[in-house]
Every structure is written in structure tokens, then in C-alpha cells.
Amino acid sequence: MKTGESIRLQMEKISSDGSAIARTPEGLVVFVPGALPGEDLEVRLSVRKKEYAIGSPGKIYMANPGRTEPFCPYYGTCGGCQLQHADYNLQRELKWSIVNDAFARIYKNPYPEISPCSGSPLEKNYRNKTSFPVGGRSGAAIVGYYSRRSHDIVETVRCPIMAKDVEESPELFAYALRSSGLAPYNEKTGKGMIRHIILRYAFSTKDILVSIVTAKKASKEEKKLILEKILPPLKEKYENLRTLTLNYNPSRGNIIVGKNTETLSGDGKIEEDLGPFRFRYDTTAFFQVNPLQAVRLYEKAAEMAATEENDPVLELYSGIGTLTAFLSRHSSSVTAVEEWGPSVERMRENMERNRLSGKVRIAAGPVENHIRSFPKGFRTIVVDPPRTGCSREVLAGMTNLEPEKIVYVSCNPATLARDAALLLEGGYEPEEICCFDMFPQTVHVESIALFRRKNT
């Protein structure tokens, strides 16, 4: 088959990017965004490679019973969501299948039955953070999201995935940027100033943090423009705007946030409640985007980590201490390891504010540096790494400490399954696997796996 040709195909399963997967009679794998498993439809090939193809759905001869009408007018052009055409029950089933498929394909060993995907309290208006890329069109700044598989910006007026109070923020940001006259950044030429607008919102306190990511350090005149042209309309719209920061990212790569942040208004921070705890964090800190669901995730991880004797816990990649606080309720102490300097500072503040300083020891620096120096004696290790998962050095370091169990929190089923296979080599078998829908309407899913040392 060639690009542009159409073929009738039966969709088999969901891929990790939200496309349905089918096979031609010749065995060619075809990924079809916008289709759903079980559907019988006409597919037009738009990309043809040697080992696979990408197609667009045409006439549907038999639809999945869970197919529904997307609620966002930008769906299909904006690349932020991948599953709005599936009702919520089907979305949860698909996410469970992604986790299950990862273990079947990558782990390739017996594993426990995975629990049904835990649904989010909110199916939309759940996000507390977004990063809007900024571009230019006809000389004016535009704000929106990247389209699927590209860096073309889909100009957006509102985003119904964002918290209700701030879902119309993209239109406001575009107006404020145009008023300032500051040039949007051009990825191809490397010229221009404004790269992204980051918005963070707290459901409990209603705090709002806005950070403008720039390609270079702002001059005195540029800061004056931001304070006089951009800040006033934001403050007029959002009475709870707590702070405005500038983040400097001179890199030509795809990383959104740079290493240096400057506060222009407010204290540079935002505060949010998770369960009985309140956390303060800043522009660059990691914080779960779905706070209501995050509480459930952390409670489950803490439950898995608990021992009858409330033993000490070692926690790796601790961030600002959100999961740390939940772990402290079921342990005599927590040793928390975190590399990012600003997050270490926030964690110290958060432990003190939540009266947990006496139970939490903070080890600042890369996990790889610390894992070799810890003595044996931790019966439980909890790890919540980035999407890339754990390095072999970290996995070996954990197994060398010979804990009774390891609790692994993951936002990437593929790297979780990969690391599960390496933990098995080190003597640890998965005892329980569950998944949580932290990101409704998208294909992303959060998982937790409990590993126990064999022969204990």
C-alpha cells in the first residue's frame, strides 16, 4: 500500500500514544489516531514507513459502543488530548490495557492481575498546571497548544481540561502579550523572546502562579513592559494571582523550563492542600497535575509501603515532599532523596510547616550518588522516578540494600515494565500492580507496583 490509498481495517488495540492499532492483510502495522479498538473502518494512509504506517479514520462501519462526541472544539487539531472520542469508562479500560500490555510485552514473566484503573474524581477541569507555547502569526503573538506530532501551535481561546477558574486563560495571555509588544520566540530562527507561559493553580487556596519563559534574560526595559502591560490585565482577571515569575531558558532544545527563575511580583510560590497536608512549591517544582486524584495515589502508595512495625522508609526522587508526607504517617522515619535544589528547599519548608521535620531526613543530591552510601536496614524503599524510569545503577543500589519490599510509582508503563524485569533479576517479584487515571481525556496513566523480595 502507498500513501494516500485507503483500506478497510479492523482495529485491534490501543497504542501508548492513543492510536488504535490494526494490521493489513500483508501484516503491515497501521496506527490510526481517532479510532478505537474493536472498530471496523476505512483508513487512509497518511504516512508509510518500511515497518509501519499511520492512517486517518474515514467511514466507520462498526463503532466501538464507547465512542462519544468530544466536548472540546479544538479536539483533533490540538495535540493535548488523545481520548475525548471515548467515554470515560472506556478510557479507563484502555488505560488498564496499556499497563497490562506493557507488562505482557516487556516484562515477559508471570505478574499479578492488574486492578481496574481507578477513575479520577473530575473527568475535565481537573488540571492545576499547563504550559502554553507562544508563537507568532501575522506579527502578533498567539497562545495555544502544539498540534499532534508537531510544534505547530493551535491557537486556543480556552481549555476545558484546565481548572474551571482558569480555563479561559489562553485568550487572556494572548491579549496581554500583544499589548506588551514583546516578540514571541521563533524555534526555527532562535530569535524572539517569549517561549512559553506556565500557569499553576491551587484548587484549595485558589492561588495562581504565572511564569513567563523567555529565551534570554530580560532587560530592565523588558521587565518594565511585563510589569506595566502584562501583569495588570492578569491581576484584573485573577484576584488570587499570587506571583509572577520569569524563567530563563536559552536552550534551543525542547525543554520547556530553564534552570534560573526570577520573581517579578509576589513571593514566587504557590500553596496547595493534599489531604491533611499543605505544600508550598514554585515555578520549576514537580507537583501532580490532578490534586484530587493525587491524594488517592499517595494514600495507596503509603498503604503499600506500610509495615506492622512502622519501620523507616527510604524514598527516592522525593520532589517537594508530597508523597514523603503521606509515607511519614505509616513509618517511624523517612529518608527522602532529591536532586533539584529549589525542590529540596521547598521540601524542607513543607516538612517544617506540616510538623514532620522530626520524622524526615532530607538527602540532597542525585539518587545515584546517595544509593551507594546508605546502610542496609530499610525494609521498604519507595521510588517515584521521572518518565525515563530508574537507571541500572539505582535499581542495583536498591536491591543491594535488600529491603523487604519496593514500591514503584510510575507515569510510564513501559519503563515500569522494563525496570520490573531488572528488579526480578535482582530478586524482587511484583506482588500487586494498580493504575490510576491521573490524566482524563489523555492516553497517560499512572501506575504503582509493589515488589517483594523472593524467599522472605
Question: What are the defining features of this structure?
Answer:
7-stranded mixed beta sheet; alpha/beta; globular
Structural commentary:
It is a single chain. The protein is of the alpha/beta class and 456 residues long. It is built from nine helices and 22 strands. It has helices at residues 88-107, 169-180, 220-237, 291-305, 322-328, 341-353, 367-370, 392-400, 413-425, and strands at residues 6-10, 13-14, 20-23, 29-32, 40-48, 52-62, 129-137, 140-146, 153-155, 194-201, 208-214, 241-248, 260-265, 269-274, 277-282, 313-316, 334-338, 360-364, 380-383, 405-410, 428-436, 446-453. Strands 9-8-7-10-11-12-13 form a seven-stranded mixed beta sheet. It has a seven-stranded mixed beta sheet with strand order 18-17-16-19-20-22-21, sandwiched between helices. The chain starts with 5 loop residues before the first strand and ends with a strand.
Give the structure's gist in a few sentences.
The protein is α/β, with parallel strands linked by helices and 456 residues long. 24% of the residues lie in helices and 30% in strands.
Q: Could you name the ranges where pLDDT drops below 50 across 5 or more consecutive residues?
A: none
Mean pLDDT: 95
User: In what range is the share of β-strand residues?
Assistant: 25-35%
**Structural class of the helix and strand makeup?**
alpha/beta
What's the N-to-C terminus distance? 56 Å
Shape: globular
What is the makeup of the main sheet? 7 strands, mixed
Biggest β-sheet: strands ordered side by side in the sheet: 9-8-7-10-11-12-13
Rg, Cα atoms, Å: 23 Å
Secondary structure tally: strands: 22
Oligomer: single chain
> Helical region count?
9
Helix content: 10-25%
